[in-house]
Amino acid sequence: MSKIAVCPGSFDPVTLGHLDIIKRGASVFEKVYVCVLNNSSKQPLFSVEERLELLREVTQDLPNVEVDSFKGLLIDYAASKNAKVVLRGLRAVSDFEYEMQITAMNRKLNEDIETLFMMTNSQYSFLSSSIVKEAAKYKGNISDLVPAAVDRELKKKFTEL
Questions:
Q1: Which residue in the list 51, 84, 91, 133 is annotated as catalytic?
Q2: Rounded-to-integer distance, Cα 102 and Cα 107, Å
Q3: Which Pfam family, any one, appears in the UniProt record (predicted)?
Q4: Looking at the predicted structure, is the pLDDT value of residue 92 above 60?
């Protein structure tokens, strides 16, 4: 069995909760592709290129992690990378219903690729990119919720707006 996983998300921006899942995934799998997707139902603050750059910066100490982006079906991307696992983080039971639907559809499209759910560290169970952006917009202290590079870039973004 392949020991390659794909960890997808919008990462707008990457939080310490995301980084927790990425690091733990990197300790389990030989290779983890962290894939930025552009969620058409969300209005992103950061461009895909900015998110890729931030993710590369905060994962540079993880030699088996590669940051990438894709358009199209996640399951097709995973197959193109010979990944047999899609790694998803769960914060709470409320995440599970949505994730279950996506997993069922992915399984229908390609039954050779499994989805593995990893519970986030309890200290990040409330954390989402949306909450971080809202707090940063109003100059709240988010330094213990995001990597330093993200904190810096959020401050820049909200100064520019």
A1: 91
A2: 9
A3: CTP_transf_like
A4: yes
- What does the pLDDT read at residue 1? 47
Checking if the pLDDT of 62 tops 60, the result is: yes
User: Per this entry, what is the length of the chain?
Assistant: 161
Tokens 């899942």, located at residue: 21
Please state the domain extents for the chain: 4-160
Active site residue 18: yes
Q: Is 125 annotated as a binding residue?
A: yes
Q: Which CATH architecture has domain 4-160?
A: 3-Layer(aba) Sandwich (3.40)
For the record, the structure tokens of 155 come out as 């401050």
**Active-site entry in 40, 69, 108, 129:** 129
In the three-class reduction of DSSP (H, G, I as helix; E, B as strand; rest coil), residue 106 is classed as helix
Residue 42 a catalytic site member: yes
Read off the pTM.
Answer: 0.92
Higher pLDDT residue, 124 or 65?
65
**Is there a binding annotation on residue 88?**
yes
- Decide if 91 is catalytic: yes
Q: Which pLDDT score, from 0 to 100, does residue 53 have?
A: 98
Q: What is the spatial order of strands in the sheet that 65-70 belongs to?
A: 65-70, 31-37, 4-9, 85-90, 114-119
Maximum Cα interatomic distance, the chain, rounded to a whole number of Å:
48
